[in-house]
């Protein structure tokens, strides 16, 4: 079952339309099509997150078990994000040795995508996001740091809850439904890791994920 199929098909049709209109010399359709594509991407993400949420609740979310290099996953995510977002530069500090884990590559990609997208979304006045990967004997620690609006102290535990959104001034100006971090926390938990967050209002936030490395 793939409930995303109609959306995929809609996206393809938008691309087709762009080509056909281009051939007819109708260039001013481009911004409209780009907005349509952006909205379609948002709906696709929303449907995906709602499905994930239902599966988490039903205990039927499935994970692949493969060897994953977190450095490679990060590189892919950075490329995807930088194609869509040009407001922020993502500065990456890589690990000295390859951070190999056992787990689900797509889910780990989703985890990183959520953390980095949030860092960008909640730091409209900044232009860099820093991502660090460090390895120790047994674990890899990944941190995503932004110079954004920050999260009030008393709400820091709650942001990992389903549908929770911080209520600090200005927070509500940002679109979202409060599902991302709940899914991130689930993915981290499945991989046997932990997630913490530090933040200073008006200065920024750092999300830190620690995951066990593959045993050799
Ligand atoms: P969404 O962004 O869709 O609201 P999330 O589950 O990803 O949902 O995040 C939950 C809440 O945590 C957000 O609504 C926001 O208030 C807060 N938050 C998450 N990441 C950041 C960040 N990098 N900086 C400031 N606030 C954040």
Question: How would you name the CATH homologous superfamily of the largest domain?
Answer: Histidine kinase-like ATPase, C-terminal domain
Approximate strand percentage: 15-25%
Rg, alpha carbons: 19 Å
Task: Give the SSE string.
Answer: HHEHEEHEEHEE
CATH architecture of the largest domain: 2-Layer Sandwich
How many domains? The number is 2
CATH fold call of the largest domain: Heat Shock Protein 90
Number of helices: 5
Low-confidence stretches are none
Topology at a glance:
Blueprint: H1 5-23, H2 30-58, E1 66-69, H3 70-84, E2 89-93, E3 100-103, H4 105-121, E4 128-135, E5 139-146, H5 180-190, E6 194-200, E7 204-212
Parallel strand pairs: 2-4
Antiparallel strand pairs: 1-3, 4-5, 5-7, 6-7
Helix pairs in contact: 1-2, 3-4, 4-5
The structure holds adenosine-5'-diphosphate (ADP).
The site of adenosine-5'-diphosphate has 21 residues, from α4 and α5.
Enzyme class: transferase
Organism: Ktedonobacter robiniae
EC number: 2.7.13.3
Q: Can you describe this structure?
A:
By secondary structure, the protein is of the alpha+beta class. It has two domains: 5-58; 66-212, Histidine kinase-like ATPase, C-terminal domain (Heat Shock Protein 90). The chain is 42% helix and 21% strand. It is built from five helices and seven strands, in the order H-H-E-H-E-E-H-E-E-H-E-E. The protein has helices at residues 5-23, 30-58, 70-84, 105-121, 180-190, and strands at 66-69, 89-93, 100-103, 128-135, 139-146, 194-200, 204-212. A five-stranded mixed β-sheet has the order 2-4-5-7-6, covered by helices on one side. Helix 1 (5-23) runs antiparallel to helix 2 (30-58) and helix 3 packs across helix 4. The longest helix is centred in the first third of the chain and has 29 residues, at 30-58. 25% of the residues are buried. The model has no long low-confidence stretch (mean pLDDT 91). Bound molecules: adenosine-5'-diphosphate (ADP).
């Amino acid at each position: 079952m793939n409930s995303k199929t109609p959306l995929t098909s809609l996206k393809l049709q938008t691309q087709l339309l762009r080509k056909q209109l281009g051939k007819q010399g109708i260039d001013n359709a481009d911004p409209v099509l780009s907005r349509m594509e952006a909205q379609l991407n948002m709906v696709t993400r929303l449907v995906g997150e709602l499905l994930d949420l239902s599966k988490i609740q039903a205990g039927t979310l499935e994970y692949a078990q493969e060897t994953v290099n977190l450095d490679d996953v990060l590189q892919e995510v950075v490329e995807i994000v930088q194609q869509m977002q040009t407001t922020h530069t993502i500065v990456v500090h890589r690990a000295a040795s390859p951070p190999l884990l056992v787990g689900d590559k797509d889910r780990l990609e989703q985890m990183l995508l959520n953390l980095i997208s949030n860092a960008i979304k909640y730091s409209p006045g900044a232009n860099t996001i820093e991502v660090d990967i460090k390895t120790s004997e047994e674990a890899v620690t990944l941190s995503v740091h932004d110079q954004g609006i920050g999260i009030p102290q008393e709400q820091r535990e709650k942001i990992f809850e389903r549908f929770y959104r911080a209520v600090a001034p200005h927070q509500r100006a940002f679109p979202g439904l409060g599902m991302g971090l709940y899914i991130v926390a689930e993915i981290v938990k499945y991989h046997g890791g932990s997630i913490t967050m530090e933040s200073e209002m008006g200065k920024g936030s750092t999300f830190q994920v620690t995951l066990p490395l593959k045993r050799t």
